Amino acid sequence: MSHATLRRRTARVGLATVLLLIAAGSARAQTPEVTRIDIEQYGIYDVGERIKTADPNAPGGRTEEPSEYRLTRQTTAVPAQSGTSFGLVYRVRGEPAGGEVTIREIVRFPPPGLYDPASGKSFASFEYDRVTKIGGGAFSTYGFDYDWELVPGPWTFEYWYGDRKLAEQTFTVALP
After folding, report:
1. Cβ(103)–Cβ(162) under 8 Å?
2. pTM score above 0.85
3. Beta pairing partners, 47
4. Which residues, 6+ apart, have CB-to-CB distance to 40 below 8 Å?
5. Which of 11, 24, 31, 43 has its CA 20 to 30 A from that of 117?
6. What is the spatial distance between Cα 119 and Cα 115, in angstroms, rounded to a whole number?
7. Digit-coded pLDDT (tens) for 16-61
């Protein structure tokens, strides 16, 4: 093989290696990284119509996403009354802006937990994975629809990215 042919092959291999390294670095730069979660608003909310989704692992057998919500009182003290909705708005911080991430939301109930008489299930907590975007906000709430949910004590909302807890908010639910 001539020196000229060897130089061309070496140059092509070198160029291919550089392009692969650039592509790998670019892919790494696009991998979302969550640095923190900011709680921007919390308290008691007036929620609009709710989109209900069957979920046998949820208290009451379903999850609900409100189509709209409005903070009526910023507080961590929540009355244990049917029809009350409480929770918070949080924002995911990190890079790249707009990158899609999955946040695990956990609501921990006070002892003895919740007991759903219709399903016969007991709940110490409820976990939910929410897909959201870096820089985007999310609304996380719990609404009292059944008398058996009216358990007084500390209700803690936790927000996890992977194995890291990035935020939490505790509400004290009390009998009126």
Report:
1. no
2. no
3. 69
4. 88, 89, 90, 91, 137
5. 43
6. 9
7. 444 444 444 444 557 999 999 999 999 999 998 777 888 888 888 8
Any idea which residue has 């790494």 for tokens?
28
Task: Tell me how far apart the alpha carbons of residues 17 and 29 are, in angstroms, rounded to a whole number.
Answer: 18
Q: Which two tokens stand for residue 39?
A: 């709680």
How many C-beta neighbours within 10 Å does residue 171 have?
Answer: 22
Gap between the Cα atoms of 88 and 148, Å rounded: 23
Helix then strand count (H, E) for the chain reads 1, 13
Distance in angstroms (rounded) separating the CA atoms of residues 26 and 70: 41
Q: Could you tell me where the DSSP H helices lie in 33-135?
A: none
Mean pLDDT of the region 164-176:
97
Rg of the chain over Cα atoms, rounded to whole angstroms, equals 24
pLDDT bucket at 162, cuts 50 / 70 / 90: very high
Please give the Cα distance from 161 to 143 (Å, whole number): 24
Q: Which two tokens stand for residue 62?
A: 């379903």
Task: Report the DSSP pairing between strands 77-79 and 69-73.
Answer: unpaired
3-state secondary structure (DSSP) of residue 170: strand
Structure tokens at 21: 């390294």
| 22 or 79, greater pLDDT | 79
Q: Could you tell me which residues come within 8 angstroms of residue 96 by beta carbon, excluding any fewer than 6 positions away?
A: 29, 30, 32, 134
